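I am still getting used to backbone structure tokens and would like to learn alongside you. Label the sequence line and the structure token line clearly, so we can match residues to local backbone shapes. Would you write everything just below, so we can both look at the same thing?
***
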Amino acid sequence: MRRMLVSRISRRVLVEHHIALSEAYNGRKTLNDEPHVGIIFTGLNVKRSVEHCAHLLRQSPIWLEDGSADSNPTGWPDIEVDGNIDTSFSYIREHLE
């Protein structure tokens, strides 16, 4: 089962990457400000990504045990990014987020 899933995911990523490269080459895809090659973004800013994910979590409703949603959660821990905050690396957005 694991081998089948890895194989399927690998093929899907290769196809998506090929389509994105083809669209960029043929001029059908507009480029945004983020540096990328196909579906691979080459400039992930780690600090900005962590802060973005924390913001998304704070904006999403939290489902309580009784099935109701708490739209204003309290008690979120503070996020502190330490270290080399200018680090960037390549990634595939769908897999990270």
User: Anything to note?
Assistant: The longest helix spans residues 2-25. The mean pLDDT is 79.
